[in-house]
Automatic annotation (TrEMBL):
Residues 3-68 form the Polymerase/histidinol phosphatase N-terminal domain. Pfam families: PHP. This is Polymerase/histidinol phosphatase N-terminal domain-containing protein. It comes from the Bacteria. CDD domains: PHP_HisPPase_AMP (cd07438). GO terms for molecular function: 5'-3' DNA exonuclease activity; 5'-3' RNA exonuclease activity. Coiled coil: none annotated.
Length: 288
């Protein structure tokens, strides 16, 4: 039986509720699953309760969006996963609230930009797509598609919502080191998410970057991820061994927002062993 340690729900930008994810994990035959919503742990209680009902082991998690600046004007978006084998500290959601406030301000600014471009979106309409959960760009994209302003979600991001889009607005983000420290401070284990997607040139530079994060408390690297070759996965597993941290993996499942990605299997190539969960727990015990 396999596991999936990187999954999103309607608490952020996924389309399945936390409870539905538990049911789908059981249907997929997964032994364990981690909920890692963007910048929030609001979905964790319902997720854990549902997993207990379906006989699937639940691991509480989060994925924090951070920004790395190298001091020469070069910026890279970096995601840090946090795993909480001992449960989520209630104060963690308070800390996440500060990040969500920054997201709310960004949403307002992007809606304003769309209005200035002649697209009469309102924030209430966008929030309606989120169903009471965290509002984000994916919900804006859904409104743009349904309103006929674009044909597809991809076009919405390319023309308006992505980093080069006309309505894009950056949000204030923590540094990777700050994200790691936040997770550690609240009793979690921090893991560098999908390093294979980082626009960092050269293996040597990526290793030195990862080593700096380990010095700040990073406890793992997500080595197994969709669309990576076996050679790439082996490379990131070897990097984790050299740095003395755990190797993890996940599908980055978002439901209908990324229909090509399957829960537990990713692009069809993932078969993540339960040993990854055990490794996270052992590393976490050493840390706490």
């Amino acid at each position: 039986m396999y596991v999936d340690l990187h999954v999103h729900s309607t608490a952020s930008d996924g389309t399945d509720t936390p409870s539905a994810l538990a049911a789908k994990a059981a249907e997929a035959g997964l032994q364990a699953i981690a909920l890692t919503d963007h910048d929030t742990v609001a979905g964790i209680p319902a997720f854990i309760h549902a997993c207990q009902g379906w006989g699937v082991e639940a691991l509480a998690g989060v994925e924090i969006s951070a920004l790395y600046r190298d001091g020469h004007g070069y910026e890279v978006g970096v995601h840090i996963l946090g795993y909480f084998p001992g449960g989520v500290d209630p104060r963690m959601e308070e800390s996440m609230g500060e990040l969500m406030s920054a997201r709310d301000e960004r949403n307002k600014l992007m809606v304003q930009k769309l209005n200035q471009l002649g697209i009469p979106l309102c924030l209430d309409e966008v929030a309606g797509k989120a169903g009471g959960d965290v509002v984000g760009r994916v919900h804006m994209a859904q409104v743009l598609v349904e309103g006929g302003y674009v044909s597809t979600m991809d076009e919405a991001f390319r023309r308006y919502l992505g980093p080069r889009g006309k309505a894009y607005a950056p949000k204030e983000r923590l540094t990777p080191e700050e994200a790691i420290q936040l997770i550690s401070r609240h009793g979690g284990l921090a893991v560098l998410a999908h390093p294979g997607t980082l626009p960092i040139r050269g293996q040597q530079y990526l290793e030195s970057f990862s080593r700096r994060l380990v010095q700040s408390g990073l406890g793992g690297i997500e080595s197994d991820y969709p669309y990576l070759s076996n050679a790439q996965r082996q490379h990131f597993r070897a990097l984790a061994r050299r740095l003395g941290v755990v190797a993890t993996g996940g599908s980055d499942y978002h439901g209908a927002n990324r229909p090509e990605i399957r829960l537990g299997r990713g692009d069809g190539s993932l078969e993540l062993p339960y040993a990854m969960v055990e490794a996270i727990r052992e590393r976490w015990k050493q840390q706490v």
